[in-house]
Amino acid sequence: MSSSPRKRSTSAVRAIALLVIVVASFCAVFFYAGWWDAMFPVKAVTSQAHQVSELYTVIMAVATVVFLLVEGLIVWSILRYRRRPEDTELPPQIHGSNVLEVIWTVIPTAVVFVLFVMSLNTLNTVDALSKTPDVQIRAVAGQFQWQFDYLTPDGKTKLFTESTPLAANGGGLVVPAGLNVQLSLTSPDVIHSFYVPRFLFKRDVNPGMVNRFEFTIDPTEAGQTYRGQCAELCGIGHWTMQFDVVVKLPSDFAAYVKERTAAALVTPAPRPSGSVALELKAKDIQFDKKDVSVAAGQAFAIHFTNGDPAGLPHDVDIRQSDGRTVLQDKPTVDGGKDVTYDYTALKAGTYTFICSVHPQNMSGTLTVK
Amino acid sequence: MATTTIAPATASTYRGGLYEWLTTTDHKKIGIMYVISSFIFFLIGGLLALGVRTELAQPGLQFVSNEGIYNQLFTMHATVMIFLFVIPMLAGFGNYVVPLMLGAPDMAFPRINALSLWLLPLGGILLLSSFLLGGGAQAGWTSYPPLSEDRPLASTGYGQDLWIVSLILIGTSSILGSINFLVTIFKMRAPGMTLFRMPILVWTVLVTSVLVLMATPVITSALIMLFIDRNYGGHFFDPATGGSAVLYQNIFWFYSHPAVYVMVLPAMGMISEILPVFSRKPLFGYKAFIFATAGIGALGFSVWAHHMFTTGAVFLPFFSLMTFLIAVPTGVKFFNWIATMWRGQLTFSTPMIFALGFLTMFLIGGINGAFSASVPVDFALHDTYWVVAHLHYVLFGGSVMGVFAGLYYWFPKMFGRMLDETLGKVQFIIMFIGLNLTFFPMHMVGLAGMPRRIADYANSGWTDLNLLATIGGFTIAASMLPFIWNVFVSLRSGKIAGDNPWEANTLEWATSSPPPPYNFDHLPEIRSERPLFDLRHGKTGH
Ligand code: HEM
Ligand SMILES: [Cu+2]
Ligand SMILES: [Cu+2]
User: Fold this and answer.
1) B310-330 pLDDT per residue, tens
2) Beta bridge pairs of residue A283
3) Engineered SS bond to B48: which of A44, A65, B77, B226, CB 3.0-4.6 Å?
4) ipTM surpasses 0.90
5) Last residue of a domain, one of A93, A126, A159
6) Which chain residues have CB less than 5 Å from ligand 2, an ion?
7) Any chain B CB within 8 A of the CB of A50?
8) Digit-coded pLDDT (tens) for B95-117
9) Which CATH number describes the domain made up of B24-537?
10) Cβ < 6 A, ligand 1 pocket
């Protein structure tokens, strides 16, 4: 080689110094800006999520080491092995080394194998299903609304339906802290995905098949509310498919279930004799009327015909004129069927009647005077 | 095109006007047209991405009037980028370089080659015409049924049908191209060019062609079934009528995971040509590279369901293990690339800079893979912005970096003039910053729980990171200006390249720049994978 060993070693020192400075300042900025924390998932709130979070940390540790090692070697080569003016002769022409190839095949294989086994262990607990879960709920994801059916402990019979997915509107997926909840997932239309970031978990909701998973929320989380959201593109209302998970103490949860079950059994007061039900039809995901009016201070009814094909459910809810705040919530009726909804009396004013499954397409003005 | 203004000595090669270009069967002209067409689609795909980023800069719907248009934007962005930019761009390089590297006068089937080329703009125009015919496809580039079926609130209208037809055309182009490559590689090599003396780029094109040949017919079948479902009551994929929606996903990913390697293996091949030249050393572990490439190709067929971990309908341990294992050959390549530079004499011309950009950025995309290979972690990350970050570090940090390295490296061969080094470095710096500004924050916003493919968000914790990504997106766009300027200026007045401006070692540099129609006047003797090195230094270097 043409350059003296001395020149090479001073340039090595300079290269090391530069490398250290670059890496150190990069790390400093990274930590200072809080980006390191942002490289981890949100706070976990279920026993399953804690495991996922721990696994993430392990993989992150390995990834960081590999990243720094490999980037370090690249940056080192750039700094150290620049061609200098005195480099007229070729560097040694080395074509390879079988020993090295074996080393950097075997070691990474071992590393990924360890990660695989750890992942498998975690998977077996995160994905486990128990025979007798404490609570069974069925989530029905339709374009573009979540609905939650609360089931008897054997999972066979429906107690009541919560079809208002957001806590702000008085609904949500209400669950007990510290108990084991099994969720079954069904969809009447396209694929959706049940995703709550705090659960560090999602599971697709496939039409034509039922997926199940379980979670146990930390006992300390009672009173909290988390946002969940559909995570599989499902059409023009995809991003609006949000829901809240409302965590209650087990005793409060039991009271909630009892109250809602009882309410579901009550038949609503009959509407005043002589008043007729209004007619409303749906076809092609549109109501046939945009305006409906009823008398103030009187219970009324709507005879609703769903003229869409089976598998396309609709309902007729009443909301404030903002179109969001739910006042009277009705169960859906499947395509090809009809139903008579009874509503309680309203004060004079304007309201919105709306299909909660298709709020984008199907709404109109309800005038009460 | 400015192609008529090349150095006078070689101008006759490229004269003959538009007609000659449109009817040519010369692999070099076809390759160049592949590259130009792909680059135009890159710009179109980039504009669509800017639409996406503009909408997401702030919460609320400001840029698009409704979510349907947003869904069209990202669906078309991804479709254009994958099927009309990356895959054809790499095929274009293959077309231009492979026959030259093998010492062949042309591809094996020159007319079929022209057909493969012209199917692409046809497919592209069909795809984009949907914007004028009632709106583009909006079910994502994956187009999962039932969302891609013809039914209310799903994909009514022509957009989805045009998407299917155009993908079938582009797929046909790929299949024809892959057969052409395979026959060329096996039958057209110059005397002395044994398989184990072929440049690594040729090896990656070989493996890629096998992947395309095995996988593309499979997705074509899925597309035809979807088309029948939509138009003739097929009931293949619609559960409402007894079909299976998950079946489509299996078929789709059986193609589309290998397609990821179609999009990066040739870029890896280009890097493997460039690093040794600018390190003045041979590629470290030539055979290891070949085995690693073949290994990635083979394993690539056993990991498709890692895109379906959350469906609840696949055997998780198998696909997890295979996905983890694919990290091994990828790692082998990295270590060999570094060993190639080790103790070399590195010079930093623009192709080398982009090659180093590939190494540093693709590494992030590769390491990310270990997170999503771990099934429980993937349950958290799948379908969030984290995945969008991952895929762009692979496709932008990997493929696009590789493409620009290749453009700067082979431009002198294609046009006889050098691209400007200063403009090249300016472009690199802006692009490198823009790339990280756009895609790094997406990891974080994904970890914070933001799903992908949403037109709007209400979580205030996501706003800053989204704004950062949008600024980054426009930075990337800005980096295209020096490049385009560079191409136009250099075609007119760039430095004359000469046969071998980089002191490179493979056969394409043994002929004039640009090469004559029949490629070589005479070939040097081929006794190793570096024939021109042997010519310069005798066998002493070995
Ligand atoms: C100009 C730089 C680019 C920017 C700013 C950009 C931006 C984006 C954004 C923001 C998304 C997410 C859209 C969403 O989920 O709502 C996206 C998706 C995607 N991009 Fe890019 N991108 C760029 C370049 C590329 C390139 C070069 C490729 C491929 C070679 C690519 C392939 C994809 C794919 C496959 C998706 C997934 C789309 C889907 O979910 O259906 N992008 N891009
Ligand atoms: Cu959804
Ligand atoms: Cu994949």
Assistant:
1) 999 999 999 999 999 999 999
2) A286
3) B77
4) yes
5) A126
6) A 192, 230, 234, 241
7) no
8) 999 999 999 999 999 999 999 99
9) 1.20.210.10
10) B 46, 49, 52-53, 74-75, 77-78, 81-82, 86, 140-141, 388, 391-392, 395-396, 399-400, 438, 452-453, 473, 476
